[in-house]
Design goal:
about 100 residues; mainly alpha; about 80% helix; about 0% strand
């Protein structure tokens, strides 16, 4: 929204449309990654029995989602928030909280 209000460009519709498309792509991409890949990745990591690898994987997912959100023009915080929401929906959420 800051881009929309701070823009000197008169073509606000185009800017609003590109922001909306970017948001839809980002949310769809993170949703499918979260729904189909996160549980499988955690399942593989659990079999290693290494707490360090597990915590590193969680941090990597949050940082990766942050960079992905930034790539699409949104804040790092939004990406980290979405990653946290996706991780909270996994069956490993209690282990993540405990570690």
């Amino acid at each position: 929204l800051v881009d929309i209000f701070s823009s000197n460009n008169q073509n606000i519709e185009k800017l609003l449309f590109t922001t909306l498309i970017s948001a839809l792509i980002l949310i769809t991409l993170l949703f499918f990654i979260g729904k189909y890949l996160v549980d499988r990745i955690f399942r593989l990591i659990i079999h290693t029995s290494s707490q360090e690898i597990f915590i590193s994987t969680v941090l990597f997912m949050v940082i990766g989602a942050s960079f992905l959100a930034n790539y699409f023009g949104f804040s790092y915080s939004l990406g980290a928030f979405i990653a946290g929401a996706l991780i909270a929906e996994t069956k490993y959420k209690h282990k993540i909280e405990a570690d």
